[in-house]
Amino acid sequence: MANQVQSHRPADQVGPRPAGQQTGTTPTFRPRGEPVIQGINRIGVWSLYIKEVRRFLKVQTQTIWAPAVTTLLFLVIFSVAMGRGDRLILGVPFATFVAPGLIVMGMMQNAFANSSFSFLSGKIQGTIIDLLMPPLSTGELMAGIVGAAVTRAVAVGLVVGAAMMLFPGVSLSMAHPWAVVWFGLMGAVMLAVLGLVTSIWAEKFDHAAAVTNFVVAPLSLLSGTFYVIDNLAPAFQAISRANPFFYVISGFRFGFLGRSDIGDTNMAVVHSALGLGLFNLALLVGAYLLLRSGWKLKS
After folding, report:
1. What is the predicted pLDDT for the residue at 13?
2. Alpha carbon of 209 to those of 78, 112, 232, 246: distances in Å?
3. What are the 10-residue block averages of pLDDT along the chain, 299 residues in total?
4. Is 132 exposed, middle or buried (0-12, 13-18, 19+ CB in 10 A)?
């Protein structure tokens, strides 16, 4: 009778049987709670990063080229209004003085715009689950979003810088390249993290726009982009020195001109660079704890 038992497996099916059917045992799985992905989920982080980059590249006319044109208009208007004659600031013509500040200001504003859209759009459209469900840790989720925002900031900075090199009277020769790279990246990271926190807190686009209009824009424009703070009254100088945007813009300008209004020595710029790095580290830790708590995302 046993010899008459035939397998129900089709005759034309070749190859080994599925796991658990070869020996009649059930497949083995990892114990519950034990992670399947060990270490960093590099594929997941890269996928999220590419998704965010492709999102702003699909509308690059709005996300890259339009900010470049707006920044150039700032340069033209302020050069005509305040750069008349042979006026020198920090030993250079006004257009050369203001150009680095405009470049890094555009970088920071676009880093904020990119990261502030990530979670907010998901909450409004009901697709936030697409970001929260993949096997990504809190740090990996932050890395993908902040990395894409910094990429957009660098792209805007390169486009604006290339355009300004063609502007009459502007020189972008770098005296200290390390300062250009460091302060540019620190400014982009700072605003990317601030945008991430904003996207977690905001419930509609009006909330994000309020942060842009009442926090980011004033801090950018009142941070010495178009002037040196030595021309201000002592009280306003103290307020300017409490503004982290001031150190980003002045340090970035120092990389081009070799001079800044941070201090009288180059060591003052180095101390500002270290302080800005510590400030960004504190921002990253705060954003990490906020994102891990699931506040306004999972509740």
Report:
1. 46
2. 25, 11, 29, 22
3. 45 48 60 72 94 94 91 85 70 89 94 92 87 90 96 95 87 92 97 96 93 92 87 87 94 92 85 96 96 86
4. middle
pTM: 0.85
Q: Where are the domains of the chain?
A: 41-293
Length of the chain: 299
**Angle formed by the axes of helices 244-257 and 177-201, to 10°?**
150
Q: How far apart are CA 166 and CA 75, in angstroms?
A: 12
Of 285, 299, 288, 286, the residue nearest 123 (C-alpha): 299
Q: Output the six-digit token pair for 200.
A: 């977690």
Nearest to 193 by CA among 285, 130, 63: 285
Residues 284, 147: Cα–Cα separation, whole Å: 13
Of 215, 205, 250, 248, give the one whose Cα is nearest residue 230.
250
